[in-house]
Fold:
Amino acid sequence: MSGFDPSLLLTVDWPEIGTATLDTLTMLGVSLLFTIVFGLPLGVLLYISAPGQLRARPRLYAVMSFLVNVLRSLPFVILLIVLIPLTLLLVGTSIGVAGAIVPLVVGAIPFFGRLVENVLREVDRGVIEASQSMGAKLPQIVFKVLLPEAMPGLIGAATVTAVALVGYTAMSGVIGGGGLGDLAIRYGYQRFQTEVMIVTVALLLVLVQALQSAGDALVRRCRFG
Amino acid sequence: MIEVRNLSKHFSHEGRRIAALDDVSLQVAAGEIYGIIGRSGAGKSTLIRCLNLLERPDSGTVKLGEQELTALPEGELQLRRQRIGMVFQHFNLLRSRTVAGNVRFPLELAGGLTPAQMDARVDELLQLVGLADHKEKRPSQLSGGQKQRVGIARALANHPDLLLCDEATSALDPETTDSILALLADINRQLNLTIVLITHDMRVIRQLCDHVSVMDHGKVVEKGSVLDVFLQPQHAVTRSLLAETGFGQGERVDAWRARIGVPLLKLTFVGEPTLSPVLDKVGRETGLRVNLLSGTLSEIRDTPCGQLLVGVVASDVELPALPEIFAREGVRCEVLA
Structure:
């Protein structure tokens, strides 16, 4: 790659870039949604079942914690391939945007769950003790104390997860997942079309920046006082 | 009201078993303010947490009225706790809620009220603690004293019959402490609410409590009415806790005696005699002339009282006759010759 001619940008296939952008946004949006739906309860469960916590179940915690570590230690590329049978079972196809979402979610749940667990641990023990002293039941503690008190941290965790998911979507090209990362690899890397590489990388950068800014703005809005 | 029997609780710390509570028993009468004092690590924090079972004792029982708390299943205990208020040293307010939201919280937990009824109750409570103007503020916008007022309003929300105060004024400056103590005294009077508090500050005991237990190393080493404990402390730990108040300084007697070489009298005043010229009157009658060495005159709750250590410079009567002469004036006199 020597001497990049800016006029090459005019030759970029913009409609294809558009489709890829939409694919990335779809994968990101759907997988983030499912990650939160499953990851948040997982994080709460990890938190309350940990030794010394509200409903300490040391053995259950050890098992869950181990599974979370296993999933987190698998490189995402491997996960993509290992999960093909599960993906087929759940969405009927193992390729394309739909095929990418299952491994994205499976990869991100343990990541987000662990972040949630850590955020919840930062909630002041004294506040939890106070609510226990007022006779709060466990669900009341979770929904009225833990989650509201941890909200800025939870939004922060969701933001970090969303940014990580953008990175994962790029790899889903391996199974024909599509999206901007896929485009960057196929055209930019494999066919030496530097202009496509530049455009996709720029778009990914904008996306990550936008996610981070949106997350930060939300955290600022719900920070207390 | 409260009957605590043979409470014991151990913690293991780095393989060693440490007794936080060692066979503690005490009784609290309905409507009184009961203080538990001790240095940090004496076990008082564990004790107050055993009163609503935030901490489970290893053995022993806690009875509230006719109900044995230690025998209640978890669900019933949660219900009972709704009517045991608790106030904390570090306030423990929900940062995610406003002042009104924090006071509303225990009402939401208990259920049974409509939103309008809850709002009315919140207004009533904020009025009681003097925070009606701060309803919509966040805890982070309040001073320490104001935060504690929110904590107190919250603790009173479900009409408790018992209020537990865990070092409620220890994080506050002296002026704010006085105003919070005044508020607690007020609540005790107005609502006839039983209050149990723990503190390491004898001033809190002196200003607020009817009875007191002194704790050391997980044991209650002395207990009684606040007047008795201040004026006739029996245990070394009590005397050392009293040092800054000027009461009960028996151990200084020897030092004084050695220094001035005359017989000493310890005079204890409670109530009316504190405000009368007793020393002057006895002096005229008996030719007693004294040298004032140390002492304190103060109020314990609302009773004026004091204790003076004096050296006898001259006396027309025999020293052993003095206690009776002072007793006629309502003053307790001990000859420390």
About this structure: The longest strand of chain B covers residues 16-28.
